[in-house]
Fold:
Amino acid sequence: MKECVQEPSTRADIQSREEIIKKIVKELLEVLGEDPSREGLRETPNRVSRMWVEELAMGYFVDPLTYVKTFEVEEYEGHEGFVAVTNIPTRSICEHHLLPFFGYTHVVYIPSGKVLGFSKFARVIKVLSSKLQIQERLTEQVADFLNEVLNPRGLIVLQEALHTCALIRGVEESMTMTTMALRGVFREQRELTNLALQVINMSKLQLPKFEGF
Ligand SMILES: [Zn+2]
Structure:
């Protein structure tokens, strides 16, 4: 499995990072010609620093294994039936522009004796996506991680996301990126893969479209 996380950080380590980010944000405001002591900006360095450490970049400090609780199941032994978990909210930060991209992750897998608790998919994806990413790599990391903990006979991870770096700057278009990772039998059994993709298509939510602004 590819290395997804560094060692989980201690509280003191996280606090010292928060302090450093606070200083950097204050400097950014000054470089832009702002007055960081004016009322509207006074709490901004605090707020932004906490947002990065506790939310947007939380994945650098938390081990996704913390959230993994698998259950044994025998029902799937020798069968081709699969489990689909769709519309898992996914938010991450593009490493090229430090701007968010967001959308949904859809997972289909054929268990080989183990399933993952329903809500855990969302938690694991939140940890893996809460760092600087490109969508292509995030999809592969989610697939590698689930493949490792579930050891399924087959796995599909499909992600659709809207990238604000394309929307609010650059080409200024509402473009959607779709990435897909296949593991196990889904790499060879085309018919089964098509069936699984149909199941995703039936239940997946559409991403918002923004036009003409
Ligand atoms: Zn970008």
